[in-house]
Automatic annotation (TrEMBL):
Organism for this UniProt entry: Scopulibacillus daqui
Superkingdom of source: Bacteria
Subunit comment: Homodimer.
Main EC class the enzyme belongs to: transferase
Pfam families for this protein: tRNA_m1G_MT
Keywords: Cytoplasm, Methyltransferase, S-adenosyl-L-methionine, Transferase, tRNA processing
Biological process (GO), any one: methylation
E.C. number: 2.1.1.228
Function of the molecule: Specifically methylates guanosine-37 in various tRNAs.
Gene name per UniProt: trmD
Record protein name field: tRNA (guanine-N(1)-)-methyltransferase
Length: 239
């Protein structure tokens, strides 16, 4: 996968891309990422990228020209049809299903504003997706884009050492993850449930499924609203 980020603060990405799993994934060629400061595409003398809002009002808006030109520059010669993603609190709420969809793409381009909004023509004519990572307002789209990038990159083939973990973690089956334990079996009197020490894989699977379902019901009942429960699951929820 190829990732391009257009941001006025490229330095913000260093810590995230240069550590741990994302760094390893980049080193192994699972993705390539280029951060472009779109100020360099401003075609005016002072390299301005924002301007006042027509009709008045507080705040500045990012002008279309530098962003259109920057997108044209990063898509030149790629032969890909990228998803062009604007990070904005007005966007579609992001979730694991969205991450799975983006993980299938060849090329993602993130547009990140900082303080300012975007001129509407960027939305209308350039952007394919508007994404919000939650109902709160950040100072810019950079952190939000890093959240999306991280959640997409970990789904790319070969990125997680243990391939199973991406498929068993929270949300991938529509449920929250079940409780997990490691050694010791008894820590200060707090014991690991017997079933997990039983070696009976069928019972362990059943216990995990049940605990996932219970936890989802307690913490995120909204996730169960559109789920068709099996008879067994209905039975568990009644217990
Ligand atoms: N930019 C500012 N706030 C944001 C949010 N919640 N999601 C995505 N981009 C943003």
């Amino acid at each position: 996968m190829r990732i391009d980020v257009l941001s006025l603060f490229p330095e913000m990405y260093k810590g995230v891309l240069e550590h741990s799993i994302l760094k390893k994934a980049a080193d192994n060629g699972a993705f390539t990422c280029r951060i472009t400061d779109f100020r360099q595409y401003a075609d005016n003398k002072h390299q301005r990228v924002d301007d006042y809002t027509y009709g008045g009002g507080a705040g500045m808006l990012l002008m279309p020209q530098p962003i259109f030109d920057a997108v044209e520059a990063v898509t030149k010669d790629t032969g890909t049809k990228p998803r062009i993603i604007m990070m904005t609190p007005q966007g579609t709420r992001y979730n694991q299903r969205y991450a799975e969809e983006l993980a299938k793409e060849d090329h993602l381009i993130f547009l990140c504003g900082h303080y300012e909004g975007f001129d509407e023509r960027i939305r209308q004519s350039l952007v394919t997706d508007e994404i919000s990572i939650g109902d709160y307002v950040l100072t810019g789209g950079e952190l939000a884009s890093m959240v999306v990038m991280d959640s997409v990159i970990r789904l790319l083939p070969g990125v997680l050492g243990n391939e199973v973990s991406a498929h068993t973690d929270s949300f991938s089956n529509g449920l929250l993850e079940h409780p997990q334990y490691t050694r010791p079996a008894d820590f200060r009197g707090m014991k690991v449930p017997d079933v997990l020490l039983s070696g009976n894989h069928k019972l362990i699977e059943e216990w995990r499924h049940k605990e996932s379902l219970r936890r989802t019901l307690m913490r995120r009942p909204d996730l169960l609203e559109n789920r068709i429960l099996t008879d067994k699951e209905k039975e568990w929820l009644q217990e």
